[in-house]
Amino acid sequence: MTIIVKDIGTVDVEKGKDLLSIAYELGFKDALSALVNAQPKDLSHIPQDGDAVEFITFKHGLGKEIYWHSTAHLMAYAVKNLHPDAILGIGPATDDGFYYDFLIDKPLSDDDLAGIEEEMRRILDEDHRFKRVELSKDEMRELLTERGETLKVELLNDIEDEVISGYWLGEFFDLCRGPHLPSTSYIGAFKLLSVAGAYWRGDEERPMLSRIYGISFPTVEELERHLKLLEEAKRRDHRLIGRQMDLFSIEEKVGSGLVLWHPKGAVILDIIQRFWTDEHIKHGYQIVQTPHIMRDMLFKTSGHYDFYIDNMYTLNVEGTEYVLKPMNCPAHFLIYMSEIRSYRDLPIRYAEMGTVYRRERSGTLHGLLRVRGFTIDDAHIFCTPEQITEEVKKCLKFSVFFIETFGFTDYHFELSVRDPLNKDKYAGSDEEWERAEEALLKAAREVGFEPVRMEGEAVFYGPKLDLKLHDALGRIWQATTIQFDFNLPARFGAVYVDTDGERKEVVVIHRALLGSMERFMGTLIEHYGGDFPLWIAPVQARVLSVSDKFIKYARKVHDILKGDGIRSELDDRDARLQQKIRDAEVMKVPYMLIVGEKEEKEGLVSVRVRKRGNIGTVHLNEFIDNIKSEIESKSTPSMLKKE
RNA sequence: GCCCAUGUAGCUCAGUCGGUAGAGCACCUGCAUGGUAAGCAGGCGGUCACCAGUUCGAAUCUGGUCGUGGGCUCCA
Questions:
Q1: CATH at residue A22
Q2: Which of A459, A435, A436, A439 is nearest to A447 (CA)?
Q3: How many domains does chain A have?
Q4: Å: A106 CA to B61 C1'
Q5: DSSP per-residue codes, A277-321
Q6: Which helix H or strand E contains A424, and what residues bound it?
Q7: ipTM score here?
Q8: Domain presence at residue A389
Q9: Domain of A553?
Q10: What's the Å distance between residue A351 CA and nucleotide B76 C1'?
Q11: Residue whose CA is minimally distant from B69 C1'
Q12: pTM of the model
């Protein structure tokens, strides 16, 4: 018989031969699984005449999934050996590894990981095969019940199929769709990374299970490379760099999730905000500013109050209820509605660096990325239905301009739409949703992007288009969000007078390009690891005197730089040059200007670049010209791109 | 909010079996005047997160509160 193998073509094979032998004969030595007529299969599968076969290696996304999933089974086997009372939850592969959840009397802790790894190694030495079995639902239920796997029985009951598959690995059995690796010998290197609590089926009302996260690779080298990447991520942690560079702090005395911006952090915020304001004005926005507290009525009108009150900070002033604003939209609506608006006025674009407060649950707070007080680079665009596509296109181009200026070259878009099965929970008509989705998609395509469609990810008041950026380590962060709103215009009665003299409901687009300033700063810090491009570096140059004989000249250089608008610092401490250099390097200062006898005599500076070292001596004026043009260019230093 | 871990000097951390605390860095003082990633010496600095409890005695044991971290959940 013949099968069609991807990358090879039609191949004659002996009937009854399994995929593993076929892969071996054809030289697909790294194959771990295969797609047979686009269905994932174990290599023990026996193909039929005419099947289309694609062998899958670890390099494929699916290959990784299978590899990690199989490692999860191995881990669960080890856990069951060590803790026979543990009941299996679920154990899938994730984007970067795998986990398995266990219901266990005494929750697992980090200290248990080493023992589990050891047991995994012991099992690995026994070299077990993953053996697939297919049972009827009743047989499967019986087997799982007999093994005490009550949670698996619950999962089983939700499966519609008649024939249910499971896998044996030695004494270990798991309900599982598969496929799996042929045997544990394929698992080259693994590491258990952490334990955490996780609700059964993600439901707060259900029991808390112990979850173990891990990762595995075919070779030790790949594992080590991955662990190094995790180390690098740890080294770039914005909380750590924030302290090292003295950018910000979050103090218990102030309150959780509230950020104190120190001078060096605040100066970065200021640079970003000035740039932001200038560009918004250039792009046809009007800057507005609205109060931090507003009467609760406003949020009752907007409809947020009932739904969101638990997350709002409230205060009572002389018997009147106020809230700290959790969002800027209602205030922008009131500005819009302060006059009768004509179609001739539209689009109207209001932008505000609006600081909002939301009482996020304590467990969700995380450095700058999840806070309770933050500033949104918010804007609301009021327009007619005909203007939608054009306005969305402008937002997209504007967003990309910002993101790229800040040095992010990789990103993708996601279009979040309604959950088709649950249309009731959304505001707005089918027609409005369709029109808005179409406008978002059309705008994205016209600007040259194909967004990833995310079913059910839309917020209740309208569809949205998000830009997700990829940082220097390949991690994905939320940045721009462009959202339609079918809720507020109706609630506020926000209208415009059309050409026919009729009042019509205005269309509103909410958008934030950077997201929140706090989160964006966290993203920037981690992307650059603190080595900011010159134009946003909190300190651009530091003048180091070789000894205290040259402090006078050092101060003169420093004053000239400051006078030219360059963020300069002077290190006039009575310390050795080596120490001054080290301290400047630790603070990630882009340029160190070293001045001693020679420099003073001839009006020179000796220039040292962070992480690179001494690049020679130039006249001060020449240095200033160069640094100014580098600031002007907003460029990302080439030495940073390589990292 | 929930599970687990955790909280000692400004920072990073040590502190054994319960006997009221230690290092490095930072800071201050002095010596050294040093040319491209930490010169040397001395000094200052702690209500051991907070509140109760057990004990002759608590950084240490117990309970609670708050904070932080890893997750779950949430993100209008």
A1: 3.10.20.30
A2: A439
A3: 4
A4: 21
A5: HHHHHHTT-EE----SEEEHHHHHHHTHHHHHGGGS-EEEETTEE
A6: none
A7: 0.92
A8: yes
A9: 534-633
A10: 20
A11: A366
A12: 0.89
